[in-house]
């Protein structure tokens, strides 16, 4: 009996930590209409120019794979300065070509590790061509694509709508928002996302 009591007492801190996610502190409740698509939608606001986005990228990638068909995961590249416009265009270009799985890690590495100056259209075109993308296709995407321009405008509108002031930030089912700063750590961020996805699914 005594041993069982000790075991319960040792378990209590872990249980308290698992449930210790507070609205207004660890996440925010958004006054928006929840999406009902059969899956919980999760949108990450990020940019290749963001150091912290690069840091959590492996954990986010692993988490999305673990969630499987439970979530519908999308990304929105934010633009906080002029240089990040080209990074956003790179994301949308890769997305339209269906090569994000290949290009995301390459772009993070190029910007964050290799410190390549991909801060104009020509530099980005050359980078995409070096990765096997047709030059004419790359030039069209970066210099003359109304679709890419429309995506940039939509991204800016979503940033304003959800008051995205720092990244990486996540919107869960148009109902909850959390970010790395609120989570105060990468591991805790993943746990909060688990909590919010489950909470949205139950609702």
Identify the notable features of this structure and list them briefly.
203 residues; alpha+beta; Glutaredoxin; 5-stranded mixed sheet; 9 helices
Overview of this protein structure:
Helices cover 59% and strands 12% of the residues. It is of the alpha+beta class. It has a five-stranded mixed beta sheet with strand order 1-5-4-2-3, with helices on both faces. Helix 3 (82-97) runs antiparallel to helix 4 (100-113) and helix 5 (121-130) runs antiparallel to helix 6 (135-143).
Number of domains: 1
CATH topology: Glutaredoxin
| Helix/strand order, N-terminal first | HEEHEHHHHHEEHH
The biggest sheet, with number of strands, parallel, antiparallel or mixed sense and barrel status, is: 5 strands, mixed
Provide the CATH superfamily: Glutaredoxin
Number of helices, where a helix is a run of at least 4 consecutive DSSP H or I residues: 9
Q: Report the structural category.
A: alpha+beta
* Residues in helix, %: 55-70%
Q: What's the CATH class label?
A: Alpha Beta
* Total E-strand runs: 5
Short description:
The chain has a single domain (23-202), classed as 3-Layer(aba) Sandwich (Glutaredoxin). It contains nine helices and five strands; from the N terminus they run H-E-E-H-E-H-H-H-H-H-E-E-H-H. The chain has helices at 2-18, 51-67, 82-97, 100-113, 121-130, 135-143, 146-161, 180-183, 186-202, and strands at residues 28-29, 40-46, 71-77, 169-172, 176-179.
How are the secondary structure elements laid out?
Elements: H1 2-18, E1 28-29, E2 40-46, H2 51-67, E3 71-77, H3 82-97, H4 100-113, H5 121-130, H6 135-143, H7 146-161, E4 169-172, E5 176-179, H8 180-183, H9 186-202
Parallel strand pairs: 2-3
Antiparallel strand pairs: 1-5, 2-4, 4-5
Helix pairs in contact: 3-4, 3-7, 5-6
């Amino acid at each position: 009996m005594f041993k069982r009591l000790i075991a319960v007492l040792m378990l209590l801190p872990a249980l308290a930590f698992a449930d210790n996610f507070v609205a207004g502190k660890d996440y925010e409740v958004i006054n928006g209409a929840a999406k009902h698509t059969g899956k919980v939608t999760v949108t990450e606001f990020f940019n290749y120019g963001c150091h912290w986005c690069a840091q959590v990228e492996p954990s986010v990638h692993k988490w999305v794979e673990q969630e499987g068909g439970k979530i519908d995961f999308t990304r929105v590249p934010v633009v906080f300065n002029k240089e990040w416009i080209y990074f956003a265009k790179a994301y949308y270009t890769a997305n339209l070509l269906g090569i994000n799985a290949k290009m995301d890690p390459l772009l993070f590495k190029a910007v964050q590790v290799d410190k390549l100056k991909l801060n104009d259209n020509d530099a980005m075109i050359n980078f995409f061509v070096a990765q096997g993308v047709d030059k004419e296709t790359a030039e069209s995407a970066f210099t003359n694509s109304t679709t890419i321009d429309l995506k940039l405008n939509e991204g800016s509108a979503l940033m304003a709508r959800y008051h995205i002031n720092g990244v990486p930030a996540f919107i869960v089912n148009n109902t909850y928002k959390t970010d790395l700063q609120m989570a105060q750590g990468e591991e805790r961020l993943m746990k909060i996302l688990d909590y919010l996805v489950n909470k949205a699914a139950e609702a």
